[in-house]
Amino acid sequence: MPDAVSRPPYIPGDVFTPERDITHAHFRPGDKVVVLKGVAGKELWGDAYKVVTPSWHTPTDEDGWRLYDPNGGDRTYITAHPRYLVHLSRRCPDCLIYLRALEDYLLPQFPDSNAAVDCGWYSLTLLNQLVHVYDARGDR
């Protein structure tokens, strides 16, 4: 994660992740992944994790993955839905298409920004479940 993260006066909507059609089987234990969270300079940034084991994702009532944060901290392990994840350990076509769509949509909205911007798409529940703003119960 970038050292200094700012919030824009508005949060650009993430129109891709909520509709992303990615199956639980796309990821496997040991995969290195990133959860994209915003823009840093002229590229996307996010938090990197290692996929550990299958886990139920309570906010969506669907299969998810238990993730390990190699930096540790209060939230060393979290659970996330597969559609939030992008492979870091390999260049798979599905993840590259998703990454490119987010870049094409989001980067033009911050043409002059050299600062890291957190777009505020994700939060953590009390059960350490990562949840996208459009997946939060009652938000749709």
Can you tell me about this structure?
- The chain is mainly beta.
- It is built from one helix and nine strands.
- It has one helix at residues 93-106; strands spanning 5-6, 32-40, 43-57, 62-68, 77-80, 85-87, 116-118, 122-124, 130-132.
- Strands 1, 2, 3, 4, 5, 6 and 7 form a seven-stranded mixed beta sheet that branches. A two-stranded antiparallel ribbon has the order 8-9.
- Strand 8 (122-124) and strand 9 (130-132) form a beta hairpin.
- The longest helix is centred in the C-terminal third of the chain and has 14 residues, at 93-106.
- The protein is globular.
- It starts with a strand and ends in an 8-residue tail after the last strand.
Q: How confident is the prediction overall: mean pLDDT?
A: 87
| Spans where pLDDT lies below 50 across 5 or more residues | none
Taken in chain order, the helices and strands follow as EEEEEEHEEE
Number of contiguous helices: 1
Report the sheet-strand fraction: 35-45%
User: So what's the overall shape?
Assistant: globular
Q: In percent, how helical is the residue content?
A: 10-25%
N-to-C span: 29 Å
DSSP strand tally? 9
Structure classification: mainly beta
How can the largest sheet be summarized?
Answer: 7 strands, mixed
Provide the gyration radius in Å. 14 Å
